[in-house]
Every structure is written in C-alpha cells, then in structure tokens.
Amino acid sequence: MRNSQEVKRFIIQVKNHIISAFIKSWQVLSEHRWLKYLTLSIASVILLSSIGFFFIIYGGGLIVDEKKMVLPATTMVETTDGEYAGRLYTENRLLTSLSDVPDHVLTAFIATEDERFFSHAGVDFRSVLRAVYKDIIALDKVEGASTITQQLSKNLFLTNDQSWMRKTKEVMASMYLERNYTKNDILELYLNQLYFAHGVYGIETASQYFFSKAVSDLTVTEGALLAGMIKGPNIYSPYINEENAVARRNVVLNQMHRAGYLETEELLQLQGQGLGVTSQPEAAPLYIDDYLEVVIQEIESRYNITRDELQRGGYRVTVHMDLDMQKQAYEHVTNTAYYQASNDEVEASVVIVDKVTAGLKAVIGGRDYTIGQAHHQALVTHQPGSTIKPLAVYTPALEKGYHPYSLLNDEQKDFDGYTVRNANNQYEGDIPLVEALVESKNTTAVSLFNAIGIETGKEYLNRLNLSTKDDGLAIALGGLSSGYTPVQMATAYNTYLNEGVYRDSSAVISITDRNGVAISSIEPTETQVFEKQSAWYTLNMLERVVTDGTASSYDYAGALAGKTGSTQHATVEGATKDAWFIGLTPDFTVSTWIGFDQSDDAHYLTKGSSQAVQLTKALLTDINQIQLIRSEFDRPSGVEDLPEPITLPEITDLNASFGLGGFNLLRAELSWSTSIDDRIIYHVYEVTEDGKKLIGKTTGEGSYTIKRPSILQMTRYYVEPINPLTNQGGNLSNPAMLSLFE
Fold this sequence. Notes:
Elements: H1 2-31, H2 33-58, E1 75-79, E2 84-88, E3 92-93, H3 103-113, H4 125-138, H5 148-157, H6 164-180, H7 183-193, E4 200-201, H8 203-211, H9 220-229, H10 242-258, H11 264-271, H12 289-302, H13 307-312, E5 316-319, H14 323-333, E6 347-354, E7 360-364, H15 389-399, E8 407-410, E9 413-415, E10 418-420, E11 429-432, H16 433-438, H17 442-452, H18 454-463, H19 486-493, E12 501-503, E13 508-512, E14 526-528, H20 532-548, E15 561-568, E16 576-584, E17 588-595, H21 610-626, E18 655-660, E19 666-671, E20 681-688, E21 691-699, E22 703-706, E23 715-723, E24 728-729, E25 736-738
C-alpha cells in the first residue's frame, strides 16, 4: 500500500515538472516569435506526414472493393457428350487455378512484369526511385514502375489516367492486398484478369484461344508470347501483327534469360521457333443463339439465377442439345424455299423434344435470331389452329368412352349463334371419329367438344400445361385469345409417345457453379394425362393423318405421325396467319410453326399448313441421314392397335340354289363373292309381305345355308355387308330368286 502511494506521488511530481517545463518553453518561444512559428511548422509537417504515411499504409481498404475481386467468368454450355455448345459472358474468361499454370509460364510473366514480385510488399521502391528520377528529368510522368500487385489494383479498382493521385491510390490498394492476401492469391487473380485482345480475358481463355490447349499444356515459347501480349494486346496479337508478336515474345525470352530462368543455348533455340498459334477461332455459329436464349430463360425461372449473374458467374451448364439436329433445324428454317408468303419477312420456328427425357434436342426461334431479342418464336404464343383437336377433343373423347370408329355427324351446325363449317365446305354425314381427325373436320370436332363438355376439354389441356382462359366452343378449333408456344405444343404432343404420360420439357440437365458445386432446381413434373390405350389409339390415328390425311403431301420414308393446323388471317380473305405441323417419330417430337411477328394486311401466308409439313419432312429426312431414326413406334404392353379401316364391297353376284341336306331334307344355298377383309359381317335378308326380314348373319364367309326354305312359292333374298367397326351397312346386293318350280 505504501509503495503504491509513493508511485502516485512520483507520477504527480513528473507531471508537474513536464507542465512547468512546457510553460517555460512556451514563454521562451513567445519572446522569439520566429522560433515559435518554425517549431509549429515543423510539428505540423511531421504530423501531416505521419498521418499521410499511415493513411497510405493502412487506407487501402477504402479503395479495394472485394466484390470486384470476384472476376466475371464465362458460363460454359456443353452437351451430354461434352461437346462445346456455347458460351455466355460479359467478359470471355475461363478461370484457372495457379496450380494449373506451369512454372515456366509463371516465370515468363514475373521476369517481364515484376522480377522482384516475391520480395516486395506491393511496391518496388527501387523501381519507383528510378521512375521518379526519369519523371523529374522529363518534367512529366513518363515511366511506370508498377508491380504485378499494382497492375492488378489499377485494373480492378482504378482508372487508366496517369495522375499522381491515381498512383497514390494504386500504392495504397497494393499494400492492402499484400497485407491481406498471399502472393499466390495475388498472382492467380492477376493471371485470370489479364486481357489478351479479341475479347479474351484470363490466361486459360487465352491458351485455348491462341493454342487450342489448356494452360497446363503451354510450352515455354507459348507462355512467353502470352506474357508479352499484355503490354499491348492489340499491338502484339499474332492474329493482328505476327512480326510484332515474334519480336515481343523474344523480348520476354531475353528477360527470362537475364533473370536466370533460361540458359543461353536454350534462349537461342527458343527464339528460333515459330509462334505455333492455331488458326484464329471462328465466332460462335449462328444457330446456337436460339438455344442459348432458352437456356438463359429456363435457368432464370427454374434455378433463380438472373441473366446477368449467369453471364458473369462462371457456371458450367449441361444441356440436352443435339448439335447436329440444331444445325439441321437452323439450315431448314433459314431456307426460303419452304415459305409462301406476302413478303420475305416471314418467320418460322422448329422445336425438337426427345421422347424419353423430354429434353429439348433443338430449338430455332426465328430465321435470324440473336440472344436477347424479344421475338423468340419458339417461346412466343401463337394460335394453334387444328393442332389442338387431338389434345382438347379427340383423345379426351376416347377417355370418356368413345372409340376411334364411333360415328360422328359431319354437317354444318349452329351452336347458339356459333356456326361451324368445314374448311372445304364439304360434308359427309355420319363418319368415324378417326376419319374426322384424319380429314381435320371442324364440324365433328366442335360437336364432340360440346358433347364431352368444354370444361372436360380444358381440364385435359391444363394437365398438358396448355391452360387457357377461353371458355367457348372455338377452343376445339384453336381459336384462342392467346395461344401456345411451339415448345409447349411439342411437349404436349410428346405425351402420345410416352403412354399418355406428360413430362415437362427442359433444355438444362445440370448446372454447377464456378467451384464445381451442383445447384439444385425445381424438378420437372410428370403426369399421367391419358390412359395408354387412348394415347396409342391417338398415335395410330395421327399416323393416318400423315399417310392419308392433311399431312400426306411431300415424302418422308420413316415412321411418322402428326397433325396439321392453320389459322385464318383476320383481314385478308383466303390468307393464312399461322401454319403448323406437329410431327411424331419413334424417337422425338418436332413442332414447326410458320408465320409473322405481326400479322396485318401486308403480312400473311399465301399457303396453309402444307409448307410446315414440307419443312418438317425435309428436316427429318436430313436428320435420318446423320443419325438413324427408328422405323417403328414402341407399342405399349396391353394395348390394342387401331384396327385398319374397312371398305365394304359391292355384292353383284348373289346366287340362290337348292340342295340336299341331312336325311335327304331339302335346303337352299346362298353364295356371293366376298371381300378379302374377313372382318366384314354379312346380313342375309328374306323379302316377305311385310318387307325384308333378317334371317341370318355370317362373318367373312361368302355363303349361307337356309335349312328349311319355302318350296311352294318364289322367295327373294338380299345380302348386306356390315362394317363391324362402325356398324354401318353397305349397299344391298343384287336380289337372288329361289323357287323349286322355276
């Protein structure tokens, strides 16, 4: 306790002495005003210098924006077999790890740009003094002394002006980086952010661009060429000026020799080599953009990654694209020979959906589409016309108990003021459902839609991701206020290939971030929309559309089913607004649409859906030459094939005669020529006073036995062929007369 009090007294005495000394000193300075001002000036300079020094040393954090140290990186899009499918970027940069860069490449950059990189703390003061001396001599800022860290700081956080203030900020940022990051961190970031001309950023991208190889495979001379380019990328690019590139590369090799990285003999040998660059890579093919736009929009919606982030984030995306199909689809869409329209501004879209995965194998959004354009025709809605009939009417009717050979009435009808006519204004009376679909009858479609119920049809559309707010019978003919996209239509029709199961289509299979971490997404839905028998019957009927119906024009040798569709132009009589064909092969579904961005008096099609049929069949023919499309559809287990149609014969040779039966009883035999179709049922009639009377039936046979014929009078007989599929009868045969006495 005593010692503590003594310490306190000592401290108080020292404080009093200091205060006394300060007062005496100030009195002396007051008597000599010049000395007071000099002392204050020196103290101010020391104080300000100290503040400035500590601000430079520790103020770099105010300049460094760590968000900018996350470099924009190219998102790579590739197919399932690893083929390059496209790139998305703001800066074309493939990031690499420092461990992947060979030592001889690192030494090329260090020897050229910052020989003392591993020994300084961000600023090389020896180089600074040399540069300051030259600046003073020239009375201007003529030489830089930037280290690799300073270059990185300038490129990431500052501008390119040559002011002392910018240089001070550069020093501050560099010293901050050196205190907070390792040399390897700085060097890796530096190599990844460099620009190499031609829109190429980062050493990995440059390696692939100039040499078609990974940075890990670069040779000494190749690394030297890249190291030399960064001083003036456009000046030293081998694709712009080969002579400059060689000279600059040799300068770098000399620097490596001077720094002790190369022996003299090795230097001379390397300087004698050519540049070894590959042919300058071509720009991305035009046919890729259409698909990449679908990828971007899908990732935005399913993965919640914005377009900007996708173009900066360095993701790796695997897609369902088939490059051959995509190219073929593009070449056919851009071929003007298929189009018959009022002018050459006509547009088209083709979408191909894989049967098994529902993956988008090809998507063309227009004849000249580029990423970001508003009118991607594969993603824009169009009125579907008659392509909606199977989806909203005929297959739902099969689900509700109708059969492909159920009879429907084909005649002009009026439904509370809504008059329905066939496109050709021809009517056939009662016809089978399958025939109504094959011939794309409007009257039967609307009548059947009315019979099963509008809400029933809409329910099936909704389950096929084809919801509509419309409520009228016009839905049955595709007369919608909005419509559907070619992607939606191809996806919906793909259900017929999959036993009635609807699967959401998609372009993206998987996506990983720049660190290789997989990003989860919303799983596509799978819904049993139709019974597999209904789906199979519909597929069979759609095959007949191609062989015998509205899609029978033009040739295609493979298995093909499909449905045509067209919509009327609103103002030009007889013109078409939208032309469709949805085709199904055993392996995939293809949706083709032809029309205009805006349809008006000057923009219309002069021909209907046949031009979409022509384009599709030509496309399939070319695809089949590249990769064989299977020749038969997969029949599901436990289903029946659609029966072949029956043509009833004209019977003109009915004959009647007597013969002996058992126990010598008299009998009569009727005979006639039969059809080769043994499914036909033959009704046998006997004419009586009350008219004709059905006395028997036989199936597939050309004879009938009358066991107890009348022998006392002449009897007349007829035969009528019956179609068992529709229960329709044909024409009566010629009469056959039977009499024992004549």
